[in-house]
Automatic annotation (TrEMBL):
It comes from the Eukaryota. Residues 121-231 form the CBM21 domain. This is CBM21 domain-containing protein. PANTHER family: PROTEIN PHOSPHATASE 1 REGULATORY SUBUNIT (PTHR12307), PROTEIN PHOSPHATASE 1 REGULATORY SUBUNIT 3A (PTHR12307:SF2). CDD domains: PBD_PPP1R3A (cd22255). PROSITE patterns: CBM21. Residues 1-64 are annotated as: Disordered. It comes from Cirrhinus mrigala (Mrigala). InterPro entries: CBM21_dom (IPR005036), CBM21_dom_sf (IPR038175), PP1_regulatory_subunit_3 (IPR050782). Residues 40-64 have a biased composition (Low complexity). Pfam families: CBM_21 (PF03370).
């Protein structure tokens, strides 16, 4: 077995497994070793501050400032600027003023309601429900309808299934009970539907049917399979003609 040579011997430097470097960076400055430990040779040395620094070159701030107001010199504190009348906007033209006017609408039903109380009672007895009335509230685009249902149970729900695109889509509107509408055999429910203008040239078409939910089952009414349909349109107001336009103008003078 080979023996390991003594550490640091110059003869066994090639065969030793552990070698110490020939010299240390702090060997040259052994005087820097003190009781506090090893001090690196490259430790920064504090620089001496120059007698004239950049801070000393700045002028000292003034101890006080004087503030003067315009009125102390007889000047006005308010500046008034006058604008020319050309900058004022003109009043709205006839087209804009017409948009602010209240528009009127009317309804064209494509079905017939029961004409008499006996006819209404007969339809309610056969279908368990029927549309009693439908009106367009004045000055609005809101439809208000009354539905008459057979009082066959206490708990009941009445819905109106409505379509605004010829039954490509639909939604259900819950009708509300009309207080005091019970006459012993039937009850009244009301619903409201508000249409949003502007309408097209042909107006807004509305198709709907009625559904009556009870503990005995569901009942429908749809105008004998044709649905309740109507069209809501806007009234076109006739513009008054000026008298000067009605009179014929002539370039001949009578003597």
């Amino acid at each position: 077995m080979e023996s390991v040579g003594a550490l640091g011997s110059p003869t066994g430097a090639s065969s030793n497994l552990l070698n110490l470097p020939a010299s240390f960076p702090w060997d040259e400055d052994e005087e820097s070793l003190g009781l506090e430990g090893i001090k690196p040779k490259s430790s920064p040395i504090p620089r001496r501050r120059s007698s004239v620094s950049s801070d000393d070159s700045l002028p000292p701030p003034s101890s006080s400032r004087r503030v003067s107001f315009a009125d102390a010199f007889g000047l006005s504190l308010v500046l008034v600027k006058q604008f020319d009348a050309w900058g004022v906007t003109d009043p709205p033209g006839p087209l804009e003023s017409e948009l602010n006017e209240d528009k009127e609408y009317y309804m064209v039903p494509l079905f017939t309601l029961p004409q008499t109380a006996e006819e209404l009672a007969l339809r309610v007895h056969e279908q368990k429900l029927e549309l009693e009335s439908l009106e367009l509230l004045s000055g609005t685009t809101t439809l208000r309808g009354i539905i008459r249902v057979m009082n066959i149970c206490f708990d009941k729900m009445v819905y109106v299934r409505i379509s605004l695109d010829s039954w490509k889509s639909h939604f259900d509107l819950l009708a509300e009970y009309v207080p005091g509408s019970n006459n012993g055999a039937t009850d009244g429910f009301s619903f409201k539907l508000t249409l949003v203008p502007p309408f097209g040239e042909e107006g807004a078409r509305v198709d709907f049917c009625l559904r009556y939910e009870t503990s005995l089952g569901a009942f429908w009414a749809n105008n004998n399979g044709k649905n309740y349909s109507l069209i809501c349109r806007e009234k076109i107001k006739e513009k008054p003609q000026n008298e000067s336009e009605n009179r014929r103008k002539s370039c001949l003078k009578t003597t």
